[in-house]
Amino acid sequence: MQTLDSLIVILGTGGTIAGTAKTASDGVGYTAAQLRVEDLLAAVPALAGRRLEAHQVAQLDSKDMDVATWQRLAAAVQEHLARPEVGGIVVTHGTDTLEETAYFLHRVLAPAKPVVLTAAMRPATALAPDGPQNLFDAVQVAAAEGASGVVVAFAGRVHDAVQVRKTHSYRVDAFESVDGALVARVEEGVVRLLGRWPAGEALGLARIARPAARWPRVEIVMNHAGASGGIVDALRQAGVDGLIAAGTGNGTLAHPLDEALRAAAAAGVKVWRSTRCDAGPVMNLPGLLPSAGALSPVKARIEMILALLAEA
């Protein structure tokens, strides 16, 4: 259980929250991952009295997030969570793949202590950066009594790793819980619980121990007007191990794409249907390719990778 003097560990991975631009008026022409996590903490004087410890795990733009970084991050999170004096973890991250990293950590670790991811839509040099407030809020969530599991603290709201999606390209409140079920809100530094802290079954670090270069290759293909099966055939020839079909509506697929995916499945490629819609499940109906349930295409891809790792 967290106490007021629990140690909160901050793990930095880069992102816009650590980005800088040449001028304060430039909110989009910045370079991500320029500041270290210690710099981010220095910009939040309100955290000066807290027991905090900072470590830089990676320094990248999250559009370039990769398997090797996920492995290092998961190992670092597990290592610090095992320390009895640590009450929770905060991970600073870029927004582009934040939902993927959150889901990955949720499935691999399913921690009993809170692991809180946060980020920013504006660089640290902006006229009104959102990173300092988000980082302050994330620390409050990590220290909240009873908090557990992997969550995202962003723009005053707390999302669980399964539901959260980035739904806007520019706004500072860029994330939503897709079915509207927020975990909590952070109001003037106070965490107000709205639902339940997330829980799940941890797959463990052993599942992801294989060298990054030998992880299964899973790609995403999208259904759209005029979709063909050409991309599927090309990926099969390239040796893909799995395919997530981001279908329209309830995972529907144009006939040429469906036929190519069925041929790939018959040849041993694992194939699941998801939806390109922002929310809602894909029904698992007889005669159709297997459903990824309510997982978005990017999270279904992670789930399939973890499943294929177990089969190897």
TrEMBL record:
InterPro entries: AsnASE_II, Asp/glu_Ase-like_sf, Asparaginase/glutaminase-like, Asparaginase/glutaminase_AS1, Asparaginase/glutaminase_AS2, Asparaginase_C, L-asparaginase_C, L-asparaginase_N. It comes from Pelomonas caseinilytica. SUPFAM superfamilies: Glutaminase/Asparaginase. The keyword Cell wall biogenesis/degradation does not apply. Residues 217-308 form the Asparaginase/glutaminase C-terminal domain. Pfam families: Asparaginase (PF00710), Asparaginase_C (PF17763). Residues 8-193 form the L-asparaginase N-terminal domain. This is Asparaginase. Keywords: Hydrolase. The active site is at T16, T95. Belongs to the asparaginase 1 family. The keyword Ubl conjugation does not apply.
